[in-house]
Amino acid sequence: xxxxxxxxxxxSVLTNRTAxxxxxxxxxxxxxxxxADAHVAxxxxxxxxxxxxxxxxxxxxxxxxxxxxxxxxxxxGTLLADARFAARMLLKTPxxxxxxxxxxxxxxxxxxxxxxxxNALVLRPLPxxxxxxxxxxxxxxxxxxxxLEQGSYDYYRYLRDRAGTVDIAAWGRxxxxxxxxxxxxxxxxNMVSANYFDLLRVRPALGRFFAPDEDRIPGGHPVLxxxxxxxxxxxxxxxxxxxxxxxxxxxxxxIIGVAPEGFEGIYxxxxxxxxxxxxxxxxxxxxxxxxxxSWLWLFGRVRDGATMEASRQELSALAVARAAxxxxxxxPGTAPTVRVAALSGLPNGEGRILxxxxxxxxxxAGLVLLIAGVNVAxxxxxxxxxxxxxxxxxxxxGAGRSRLLxxxxxxxxxxFLLGALGGFVIAHLxxxxxxxxxxxxxxxxxxxxxxxxxxxxxxxxxSLLAGLAFGLGxxxxxxxxxxxxxxxxxxxxxxxxxxLMSRTLIVGQLALSLVLLVAAGLFIRALTHGARIDPGFxxxxxxxxxxxxxxxxxxxxxxxxxxxxLRERLSGLPGVLTVSYTGRLPLMMGSSPDxxxxxxxxxxxxxxxxxxxxxxALRLPVLQGRAFLRTDDERAAPVAVVNETLARKLWxxxxxxxxxxxxxxxxxxxxxxxxxxxxxxxxxRPAFVYFPLAQQxxxxxxxxxxxxxxxxxxxxxxxxxxxxxxxxxxxxxxNTLRQATGIVLLPQRAAAIVTGALGAVGLLLAAVxxxxxxxxxxxxxxxxxxxxxxxGAGRSxxxxxxxxxGLRLAGSGILFGLVFAxxxxxxxxxxxxxxxxxxAATYLAMSSVFVLVALIATYxxxxxxxxxxxxxxxxxE
Amino acid sequence: MHEDQxxxxxxxxxxxxxxxxxxxxxxxxxxGIARRIEQTSRGVFKVNPGSxxxxxxxxxxxxxxxxxxxxxxxxxxxxxxxxxxAGRQQLEVETTNWTRRASAVARLLKAxx
Lengths: 877, 113
Fold this sequence. Notes:
The structure holds 2 protein chains of 2 kinds.
Chain A: H1 2-15, H2 17-41, H3 46-57, H4 60-68, H5 72-92, H6 94-123, E1 135-142, E2 151-152, H7 153-162, E3 166-180, E4 183-192, H8 196-200, E5 206-207, E6 223-226, H9 228-234, E7 245-248, E8 251-258, E9 274-277, H10 281-284, E10 294-302, H11 308-325, E11 336-342, H12 348-386, H13 388-396, H14 401-436, H15 453-478, H16 483-488, H17 496-532, E12 542-547, H18 556-571, E13 576-582, E14 594-598, E15 601-610, H19 614-618, E16 622-625, E17 639-643, H20 644-650, E18 659-662, E19 665-673, E20 688-692, E21 701-707, H21 715-725, E22 734-736, H22 737-740, H23 746-780, H24 782-790, H25 795-824, H26 840-867, H27 870-875
Parallel strand pairs in A: 4-9, 6-8, 15-20, 17-19
Antiparallel strand pairs in A: 1-10, 1-11, 2-10, 3-4, 3-7, 3-10, 5-8, 6-9, 7-8, 12-21, 12-22, 13-21, 14-15, 16-19, 17-20, 18-19
Helix pairs in contact in A: 1-2, 1-5, 2-3, 2-4, 5-14, 6-12, 6-14, 6-15, 6-23, 7-11, 12-15, 12-17, 12-23, 14-15, 17-23, 17-25, 17-26, 18-21, 23-26, 25-26
Chain B: H1 2-6, E1 8-9, H2 15-23, E2 28-29, H3 30-40, E3 45-46, H4 49-61, E4 65-71, E5 77-83, H5 85-112
Parallel strand pairs in B: 1-3
Antiparallel strand pairs in B: 2-5, 4-5
C-alpha cells in the first residue's frame, strides 16, 4: 500500500512537477497567512505581522527546496535535470560536442573493433552451442610437454569405452563434393562419431541427427547432416531435403537432418557444411587408415558429479594403460598423458596464440583510447576553465561541490556514452570491412566478426570507465570550492597549471601515436621488403587451382587419367606456356620434417612431390643434371632432385648420380635445383628434396599453369576445361600464384593495417588535440595579441611566435615518441624480414609526417588569432 | 526574544509522532498542527515549518495520513490532513514505545542523580 503510494506519488510529482510545486506554494502561503493572523491577534499591525511571519518561516524558496528534496523522485529528478542541463550545455556548443564525441568514438571504436574480433575468435565459446558447461577438449600429449592435438580412431575407442567420468566424441575433417541434381558443390565436411551432436546438446533444425547404430559398421550407413546455411543455399531450404538422395564424393548418401542455424562445427572459422558418420571413412577418404591414422579431434562432456580434473586424471591413466597394452615404449621422462581444457571454439594451441596476438592488438587499440581520453581530458579542462565563471556563479548561488561535480560528470558521461555508441558503429563498419577482406588461402574460413550485445556492453563499459578516468580530474578541478578567487579571476595568467597539464597531455599523445605509426611504417617496410625477397622462382604469370579427386570419389586410376587429360586440354589453349602439378604450392611447403639416409648419415630434409615441368612452370632453374621426365613414373627406378644446399652439404664434389635411401627406397639424384623459398620468406636455406609425383603419388594436387598475359583472366578457361572433362565436378577455386602465396605476408599485412589504422587515428587525435590547445591558448591570449599588435608587432611576427610555440610542443612529443618507438620496435623485430627495427628512413619519414601535421594544426588557429581585429581583441572582457 | 529562549526544537524523531497525535482528534491544516504542538507543549516545542512540511510528505507517502484541500473556518483554501487507519495504529505503537522509553530514561536519570 505505502509502497504503491511511494511509487504513484513520486511518479505524479515527476510527471507534473509544476502542479506539485504549486500545491506546495499554496500550502506555504496558507501557513504564512495563518501565522500573520496569529501575530495580528497578538496586536501587531498587518504589515508587521506579515514580516514577523516571514521571519519565522524563512525564505519560501528555501522551504520549498527543502520539502522538494524529500522522496526518491527527487534523486531521479536531479538526475534528469542534470541530464537535461548536460544536453543543453552540449547542444549549446555543438562543434565542441561533435569533436569530443568524434574523438571518443575513434578511441572506443578502435578498442571495440579489436574486441569484436577477440569476441568472435576467442571468447564466443561455441557458436550455435548453448550448453557449454562440462564440455572439454581432450588432446593426446606427452609428459615432456609435446601436444599431439589429434588421435587415432583406435585411441578414441580405447578412451571412450573405458572412461567413467566423461562421454567422449571424435571428429575429423574431410573434403566433400556433394552432388545434388547433377551439380557438384565443394563442401567442407566433418566426419563425426554418432554421439557428436548429442554431447554438444545441439538440436536439429529439421530431421534428425545420427543414431548410435549408424556409426558401427564401416561403410554401413551413408547418411548426411547438412548445415543450415548449406541447406538454404544449395538445397533451396526445402523441408523435402530430408530423405533426399545426393552423391557425396561419388557415393550415394541420404540427407537425414539439418543442423540448427549458426552451428557450423566446433572450430570457429573453420566452417563445416555437412556431417557424416565416422564409419563412412572408407568411402570418403579411402587412402587413409581409419584405425591407426591420427586425424581425429576429441572432445567430451564431463558426466554429472565428476570434475574436469577427475576426467584428466582418469584419461591420462587410460592413455598410459593403452600404451602399456600395445607395448609402446617412450623415451625416459616422457609418458603419454591427456590434456584437458574447457572446449572453446579454437583448435587448442591456436587459441592461446590468437589470444596473445589479439591482446597485443587490443593493447595497441587501448593506446588509441588512451590518446583519445587524454585528448578529451585536455579539451575538457580547457573547456571548464572557459566555463569557470559560470561554475563559480553557480557555486556562489549555493550549489554544493558534490552537486557541481555530479553535474559535470553527467556531462562527461553523456559525452562518453555518445562516444561509445559512435565506437560501436565504427566497430560495426570496421568488422564488416574486415570480413570482406579476401583471405589468400583455401581454408574454409568464415568469420562472423560483427559485434554482438556483449561487444556493445564492452563498448559502453569501457567508454564510461574512460569517461570517469579522464573526466573526473578536470571535473574535480573545476568544481573546486574556492569561489571567490575564481570570480575575481581574470583571464591573464589564470590556469597556468591547467595549461601545463594540457601541454603535457599533448606531448604524450603525439609520442604515443608516433610509436604506433613507426610500428606501422616498419611493417610496411617489411611488407615491401618481403614482396621483394626473391623466392627463387617467378611468381608472376602463373595460375593455380586446387584439384581434389579424392573428394570427387575418383579412384587413383581415374584421377591419373583426369590429370593427364586436363594437362592435354590446357596445353592446347592459346597463351599457355607450361602445365604442371604439385603436391603443395611453393611457399606453402611447410611440411613436417622427413629424413633421408645418405651413407651412414641421417639428414633432416623437407620434401615435395612435383610433376614433370614443375621447374619450367615456376622458372626455377635446374643447375646440374636434369628435371623430371615423363619416364620417371611408378615403374621406373626412384629418382629425386635435391636443392643446392643439400647437394653442397652431402655431396660437395657433385650430387648428380649419387643415391640415398628414402622410406626404404634406394633413390638416385638426377638433378640439383637452385635454392628457393619453400615455406616462409625468411627461412634460411633448408635442405630440400623433390620427388616425381608419379613415384610419390598423392591424389590431391595443385595445378600450375604458366601463361603469357594476365593469369587472372585465365580462371574461366581452367574451370571450363575441368567441367568439360567431368560436368559433375564442383566449380574449382582458381587463384593466381601471387594470390595463393600471399598468405606468407599475412601477418605483416595484418599488422601493418592494424598499426597503421590505429596510428593514423592516434595522429588525427593528437592533431585535433594540438589544434584544440593552440586555438584555446590563442583565444586566451587575444588581449595579449591585441596589445602586441597595438604596440606595433607585425602579423607575421606574431604568427611565427605562435607557430613556433606549437612546433616546440610537437617537437618534444616527436622526440619522446622516437625514444619510445626505438624501445618498442625491438618487440616486433622478429616479424620484419631483417628490416632494421631502428630503420632511420622510417623514423625520419614518420617524424616528417608529424611535423607536417603539427604545422597545419598550429598554423590554422594561429592565423585566425592574428587576423582578429586588435581593437576587438582588447575589448574582450 | 524571552519566549524564544524557552522554546526548543522538537526532539529528533518525535515530530512524526506529535503530528499523528495532533491529528488524532480532528483533521487539521499545517499551521493548525504547528500551533497545536506549540500550545499543548505549553510553548516548549517550536516546530520548524520546513520540517513540518517535509514530515507531511513523508507521512503521506507512508499512508499514515491523507490530505485534501477544503475551505478553512476562516474561509481560506487550506490543505487539511487526516489520520488514516494505519496512522492511528502507528500512533498507538509509537505512544506505547515512547512511554516505555521515556519512563526508562526518567528512571535512569533518577538513579544517576
